[in-house]
Amino acid sequence: MPATGSVLDDIVAGARDDLARREAALPLGELRAHLADAPPARDPMPHFRAPGSSVIAEVKRRSPSKGALAEIPDPASLARAYARGGAAAISVLTEERRFGGRLDDLRAVRAAVETPILRKDFIVESYQLVEARAAGADLALLIVAALDDDTLRRLHDEATGLGLTVLVEVHDEAEAERALALEAELIGVNSRNLKTLEVDPDVFGRLAPQIQGDAVLVAESGITGVADVGRFVSEGAGVVLVGEALVKDGDPEAAVRAMTGVTAP
Ligand SMILES: O=C(O)c1ccccc1NCC(=O)[C@H](O)[C@H](O)COP(=O)(O)O
């Protein structure tokens, strides 16, 4: 069952309100017509499965845990730097209220780089998946804690049907079981506790043995540099998802390059 009493509940409630407004302005049927104009989805999995760490570099202006992080007036320019550094994918936070993102950021990034793009948002309805694909996204995030089992499976299947690669995000053992039941090919372990917002770097190492199999594992949150990447790779991560450390770095291209291709010591 979805987690209750967490910051996630508030974020999802806001995301639903915003979604209702967008859907009133552009109904799902009309939105679907825009899919024909979207470029074909890019498959990030070959890069993610290659030896050494892959980096999903995030465009993130602010967050509930840290407040303002970076202004990012030109997300396309940041994305180009990430791409030059060798990012395997670029995550664009499109949630507006708490993260200061927007779907137009994703469109701008899509126009600027060939790198696969993840729509990082609080996705609870099909509409958001269609929006993501129509805007040019190649991946979408599904947060297990935000969805009941039926909705999780339905959205997972719909996303895959749209050509999107799904990053299924978990925080604990019970959620990991639910991701495994989906036979998800890409599972993210988010080290950020959604009640306290604190990051516990031990969570990944605790869950990885339970999840490991065919899925590629993504270590998410609190990654500050190459040493962290090495730790998570040695614990089974193929991919790291990094936001704050990259948007605050004066040289995001070099920062991504340093985190890319890291192998277990
Ligand atoms: O970042 C937050 O404060 C946050 C709070 C509640 C739900 C989600 C949140 N973040 C989304 C993410 O998953 C991170 O942006 C992502 O893992 C990157 O984390 P970081 O490198 O620590 O910025």
From TrEMBL:
Record key words, sorted: Amino-acid biosynthesis, Aromatic amino acid biosynthesis, Decarboxylase, Lyase, Tryptophan biosynthesis
EC number of the protein: 4.1.1.48
Gene3D superfamilies assigned: Aldolase class I
Reaction catalysis annotation: 1-(2-carboxyphenylamino)-1-deoxy-D-ribulose 5-phosphate + H(+) = (1S,2R)-1-C-(indol-3-yl)glycerol 3-phosphate + CO2 + H2O
InterPro entries: Aldolase_TIM, Indole-3-glycerol_P_synth, Indole-3-glycerol_P_synth_dom, Indole-3-GlycerolPSynthase_CS, RibuloseP-bd_barrel
PROSITE patterns listed in its UniProt record: IGPS (PS00614)
Annotated ranges, domain Indole-3-glycerol phosphate synthase: 8-258
Keyword Lyase carried by entry: yes
Pathway of action: Amino-acid biosynthesis; L-tryptophan biosynthesis; L-tryptophan from chorismate: step 4/5
Keyword Lyase: yes
GO MF, one annotated term: indole-3-glycerol-phosphate synthase activity
PANTHER family reported in the protein's UniProt record: INDOLE-3-GLYCEROL-PHOSPHATE SYNTHASE (PTHR22854:SF2), TRYPTOPHAN BIOSYNTHESIS PROTEIN (PTHR22854)
Recorded family membership: Belongs to the TrpC family.
Family matches, as HAMAP family: IGPS_B (MF_00134_B)
Protein name: Indole-3-glycerol phosphate synthase
Organism: Nocardioides pinisoli
